[in-house]
Amino acid sequence: MNKQNKKVELILYNNVLNLTRNKLIYTKFGLLDSFHNRIILIFFHISFILIKFTKIKNKSNIQGFDQ
Questions:
Q1: Span 39-43, mean pLDDT?
Q2: CA 7 to CA 24: how far, in whole Å?
Q3: Does the pLDDT value for residue 66 go beyond 50?
Q4: Does the pLDDT of residue 60 top 80, yes or no?
Q5: CA 6 to chain centre
Q6: Which of 26, 20, 24, 12 is nearest to 38 (CA)?
Q7: 3-state secondary structure 1-65
Q8: 14-26 as b/e: b if 16+ CB within 10 A
């Protein structure tokens, strides 16, 4: 793994953590700002990221297969 990948991973990780600290999520959905809910939100956001990466990877595999 190179430095560029580590930098991107760190930025992505920090963005996910910042999203879990967003007060709007807790007020809009009536959630308590607790450790348990933050962990759930971390997993929630990471699952969307993984789904997006999987779709991107599958598209590149399909495009490479057609050539």
A1: 94
A2: 28
A3: no
A4: no
A5: 15
A6: 20
A7: CCHHHHHHHHHHHHHHHHHHCCHHHHHHHCCCCCHHHHHHHHHHHHHHHHHHHHHHHHHHHHHHH
A8: eebeeebeeeebb
